[in-house]
Fold:
Amino acid sequence: MREALHNLLPITLEEMDSIKLMNRVDTKYLTDEATLVKVLEDSAAAGYRALVTGGSMVIPYNSIYYDTKGLRMFLDHRNQKLNRQKVRTREYVNSGIAYLEIKRKKNNGRVKKKRIQIPPGEMTDFSTDGDAVSFLERQSDFTLSRLSPVLSTEFDRITLVNPSKTERITIDKRLEFNNFRTGKRASLLDTVIIEIKQDGRAASQMKGILLDHRVKPVRVSKYCVAVTLTDSSARSGRFKEKVRAIEKTINKKITVI
Structure:
């Protein structure tokens, strides 16, 4: 994989400012690391560029997902509610920058994300941060008193940008989950989740590259898969099929400890 990444031209955070895509259409894909190498090789040939921070194209992320005691946001997703949201904090580990983020999925399929910067020390508790608490209550359907941290997701991310800067592709690998409420941990092994983020109007060359390697779109949520794996009391329903699809993709059984 190192050689495949080496062939990609770099892009800086400053250059990516014009393609934040905070209001967008997302399409997700599942594959494994062996196939990812081929996808990266074709991406380099097509002129895609890779984000570099801290001198690296592989950037560690840490996210903390919040939910109600009864997992309201998890169940809204499971029940395929068209208008739903997620509340999380996210740290960009290399830069030491953290945000409180509210993601809303609309009934037209578009995803809108809003965020406010917080100190990294507030990832699991921002209750004393008046600006963050106010932001949560303005931008989400929940007050802080109803929410608490459910689990963490840690992963490495590669971010690609197409030559015309009309789409951004995130590639997440080495995903690990830790459920604060149950104490259970799980790893998705060599699973890779690829997400194409675009405004919906421009064509995507990446979709063609993925199709060439028989990587097909799939609806999958890291948060919902993580809860399904680490909380046996959660009413996971159809998400158990997502876990089986992941195991089929990597041809391995996911273990929970």
Notes: Residues 2-250 form a domain with the mRNA Triphosphatase Cet1; Chain A fold (CATH 3.20.100.30). Residues 78 and 238 are 7 Å apart (CA to CA). The mean pLDDT is 92. The helical segments are 2-6, 33-45, 72-78, 130-139, 205-212, 222-230, 239-250.
